[in-house]
Design a protein that fits this description.
single chain; 277 residues; alpha/beta; three-stranded antiparallel β-sheet; 37% helix; binds adenosine monophosphate
């Protein structure tokens, strides 16, 4: 397994290979969710292809003063996880390698980014689109894998690829969960024992909503809010039913309905989603 940290050298290395290259962009602190993405990347690359994992905690997608500085960076463990999962190349640049001191060009999606997490985290998806663009340029992958836990992120990246003609196939991988249903996340380690115990209420509320025959979005979100509110440490950011393609709110639950939630447990913001039909 190669570990590259300079963008120029990484580009040169990637240009030289004729192999099919599949990228898994991450911020590190790798967990089982990331490992499944790496396995999906291997399937997409084939035994002869190359699986590349980028590890970069992107300052541009964190709000000032938010958890950027304290975001976990377990470098050795991440290397072990990648090695065990059969990764060919890790790209792990320093911040100075990725951003000039005075960057003045950014990539911004202007429609799908206005709702859900985009509304609560202004500038977040601009940071995501900008860094993914840079990773695509540096590493020149044929395909890239993203997790469905970050549903809005995939929709926005697909739109970016469509509108800016990136020659990169975008592949979605299902959400990986802990045994009690909580979606695996690098942020789960911030939860206190009490918060961790309460956090599976999210999955429980989403599953109950899917099982219900309720057709009204507002009645559905009300029931979900009530169930989440039974957890004393939960503070709801949003609970919304949207169309899975346009990400616009819908009044009635039909074929394409997606229920998405973002909830704080203490200081930690967790997200999850489910297709309702
Ligand atoms: P992150 O390191 O949190 O930026 O995530 C990197 C990639 O892993 C993104 O495409 C996420 O959607 C994906 N991911 C994170 N958690 C999970 C999970 N529990 N299941 C599947 N994919 C995930």
């Amino acid at each position: 397994m190669e570990i590259l940290s300079e963008s120029g050298l990484a580009s040169e290395r990637m240009r030289k290979t004729e192999k099919r290259k599949v990228l898994v962009p991450t911020m590190g602190a790798l967990h089982r969710g990331h490992v499944e993405l790496i396995h999906a990347a291997r399937s997409a690359a084939g035994a002869d292809g190359e699986v590349i994992v980028s590890i970069f905690v992107n300052p541009l997608q964190f709000a000032p003063g938010r958890d950027y500085a304290k975001y976990p960076r377990p470098e050795h463990r991440d290397e072990e996880v990648c090695r065990d999962a059969g990764v060919d190349v890790i790209f792990r640049p320093a911040v100075e390698e990725m951003y000039a001191p005075n960057p003045s060009v950014f990539v911004e999606e202007t429609e799908l980014s206005r709702t859900l997490c985009g509304k609560s985290r202004p500038g977040h998806f601009r940071g995501v689109c900008t860094v993914v663009t840079k990773l695509f340029h540096i590493l020149q992958p044929d395909a890239a894998i993203f997790g469905e836990k970050d549903f809005q992120q995939i929709a926005i990246i697909r739109r970016m690829v469509r509108d800016l003609n990136f020659p990169v196939e975008i592949i979605a991988a299902p959400t990986v969960r802990e045994e009690d249903g909580l979606a695996c996340s690098s942020r789960n380690q911030y939860l206190s024992a009490a918060e961790r115990e309460q956090a599976p209420v999210l999955r429980g509320a989403l599953l109950r909503a899917r099982e219900s025959t309720e057709k009204s979005s507002s009645a559905t979100t009300r029931a979900v809010r009530e169930q989440i509110a039974t957890a004393s440490s939960a503070r709801i950011d949003y609970v919304e039913v949207v169309d899975a393609e346009t990400l616009k709110s819908v009044d009635k639950i039909s074929e394409n309905a997606l229920l998405a939630v973002a909830v704080f447990f203490g200081e930690t913001r967790l997200i999850d989603n489910i297709r309702l039909r």
